[in-house]
Structure formats: C-alpha cells, structure tokens
Specification:
The structure is a single chain. By secondary structure, the protein is α/β, with parallel strands linked by helices. 42% of the residues lie in helices and 17% in strands. It has a seven-stranded mixed sheet with strand order 2-8-7-6-5-3-4, sandwiched between helices. Strands 9, 10, 12 and 13 form a four-stranded antiparallel sheet that branches. Strands 1-11 form a two-stranded parallel sheet. The longest helix is centred in the last third of the chain and has 22 residues. The protein is globular. The relative contact order is 0.17. This is Low specificity L-threonine aldolase.
Length: 348
C-alpha cells in the first residue's frame, strides 16, 4: 500500500534527524530556554525581516491553535473561521473546550473574505441585544486552506485591514505554510505575512519535522504572558530543545522551502495526470493537496493499492477525494500511480 492520504506519514527529513543525533547528548536547560530554541527563533525573525517578533515552539497544530486562541480571547469572545476551518471541523471542539465559540462563515474554496468579516462585525454591533451574543475578537484562516488554496496578497491585506478597523486579531494557521510559500501561484512571503497578521505559525509537523510548530507573534498584546498559557495548556515541553533543534535544521540554508517545492512539483505532476486521464479537480490549487473527482468504481479499485482521503460526495456515482504529496514522497510512487491511472484511460 502506497500512502497519499496525508503529509505526515513519514518521520523527519534526514537533516533534521542528523541534527537531533548530533545534539542528542548535549546538556541544555529545559522548557525552550536553551540556545537551540534561541537560535531557531533568531533564524525565523531574520526570515520574517522583523527582530521584534516573539517566537514560541509548540508540539502540534491543534495545540498551537487552542493555545493561541485561548490566550488571545476573553471569556465572552469568539473566533471567526471558515466552516471548513481546521478549528471548526478537525479538532474535536478544542477551541470550544477553552470556553470560546467558533463563529463559522460560509467559504469559497476554503477561504473567507474581508467583506464577510465586516458584515459579521457590523451585524453584531447593530444588534440591540449584542451583549447577549458572543463578541467576535479574532479571525482565523489557514494558508494553504483545507482545500489547498491560497490567499492572494490583496485578500490577506484586506482581511488585515478589516481586522484592524474592527479591533480583531488576525491569526494564520500555517500548518502547511511551506507548501503554500513554495507554490507556483503564491504571492506571499514571510515578511508580508508577519506584517499582516497579529500571530501566525510556521508548520513543522507536516513539512519535514518529527513534530512541532513555530508560533510567531507581532502584536505586543498577544506576546504578554503567553508562556503562562503554553504551560497551562500542557504545551511547555520539558525537552523543549528538541523543537528548537528541528527548526534550526529546517530554517538553515533554505531547507524548508527546498523540500516544500519538491512536494509541490510532485503534486503538480500528479494533478496533470489526473486531469489528462479524465478526472477533473474539485478546486484549483498548486499546493501539495489535490482533489480529483472520480467514479466510485475507480476509487474502489485504487483503494486496494493506494491510501487517500475521502473529501465529499459530488453526485450519485462520483466523489471528490484528496491525494497529498509531502517532503518525503517518492517520485517512483507518483509514477506508479500515474501509470495505473493511464491504464484506466479516460473514465467518466
């Protein structure tokens, strides 16, 4: 069985493992206060072009989302997200477990707009009973989205401006940020993201690390006391240097973008083959997630040899599924899948 259902099937990039082995017997202080975390944070600040950023390392995406949102919001406040947003659909109510409601909005290929945020805030303010409803205080987006799509520079800038006009924080989930930054149609870079967002994170778990996300904060209000929240939410790893070491390896010599570009290239190759064989895409994206629409009979045949994720029902006989490439995907496995698709021919 060849697995394409997610981008964290394998362990870590060899250079990450080498760095972990090289430093394995070093003695350092704990809880992320070691020199490796300090150096990794400095590399991230340099890549973002902003020395004032606060950088914190957490173990995983759900933990990062829950901790950031709980730290930012007061008890009566909620977070705006797309209906398909990870915090709304894939985290078992982690945000709600901290006492904060997710205010879900309709999406367009996984994205929400500044106009939607403005409308929701206006409706809340103009409601005569506004104090009886949850106050919006943060906007959560993912880039890439759950559909592998990307925000344009204009869309992110407009969302940032809408948040600032309405007194909201803008939080970008970057669990797959590398695959977004490396995509052929990407318009964003780390300095631009850091200038638009109050907080975002650089994902490691899905982009070459064994585990770990680097939370980056520009807003001074959010920086204050954040380590208290990390500890309270169970995110302060005693051997915190393991996170710093991994991000040192990823951020040195352009490795993070190098391995992301490779994953995107293989996804492009696979995407072109699906379309050539008569299987259209549910959404257009150039990142490492692709969503072909296929007959159920074909999916049943493929499922005996390949792992992939079901996405949604399209009609009575067709479903959209997700195939993911990653930093570790083998080109020969992509070629094998393409060969099997081509044997099937154009099937409707």
């Amino acid at each position: 069985m060849i697995l394409f259902q997610c981008d964290y099937n394998e362990g870590a990039h060899p250079r990450v493992m080498e760095k972990l082995m090289e430093t394995n017997l070093e003695q350092t202080v704990g809880y992320g206060e070691d020199e490796h975390c300090a150096h990794a944070a400095e590399l991230i600040r340099k890549a973002c072009g902003n020395e004032s950023l606060a950088v914190h390392f957490l173990v995983g995406g759900t933990q990062a989302n829950m901790t950031v949102i709980a730290a930012a919001l007061r008890p009566h406040q909620g977070v705006i997200a797309a209906q398909t947003g990870h915090i709304n659909c894939h985290e078992t109510g982690a945000v709600e477990s901290t006492g904060h409601k997710v205010l879900a909005l309709p999406h367009k290929d996984g994205k929400i707009s500044a106009a939607q945020v403005e409308r929701l805030c206006r409706e809340h303010r103009e409601d005569a009973s506004f104090e009886h409803t949850v106050q919006p205080k943060m906007v959560y987006i993912s880039n890439p989205t759950e559909y592998g799509t990307l925000y344009t520079a204009k869309e992110l800038e407009e969302l940032s401006a809408a948040c600032r006009r309405n007194g909201l924080y803008l939080f970008l989930d970057g669990a797959r940020l590398g695959y977004g930054l490396a995509a052929a149609d990407n318009e964003l870079d780390l300095p631009f993201i850091a200038s638009c967002c109050d907080v975002f994170y650089i994902g490691g778990t899905k982009v070459g690390a064994l585990f770990g996300e680097a939370v980056v904060m520009s807003n001074d209000e959010l920086k204050r006391d954040f380590r208290y929240f990390i500890k309270q939410k169970g995110g302060m790893l005693a051997k915190g240097r393991l996170l710093g070491v991994q991000f040192e390896a990823l951020m040195e010599d352009g490795l993070y973008l190098e391995i992301s570009r490779r994953a995107d290239r293989l996804a492009d190759k696979l995407r072109e083959a699906f379309v050539r064989c008569g299987f259209p895409m549910l959404v257009e994206s150039r990142t490492n997630q692709i969503f072909p629409v296929m007959p159920d009979a074909v999916l049943k045949e493929l499922s005996g040899r390949y792992g992939f994720s079901w996405q949604e029902r399209v009609d009575d006989t067709h479903s959209a599924v997700r195939f993911c490439t990653s930093w570790a995907t083998r080109e020969e496995n992509v070629d094998r899948l393409i060969a099997d698709l081509e044997k099937m021919g154009p099937i409707r």
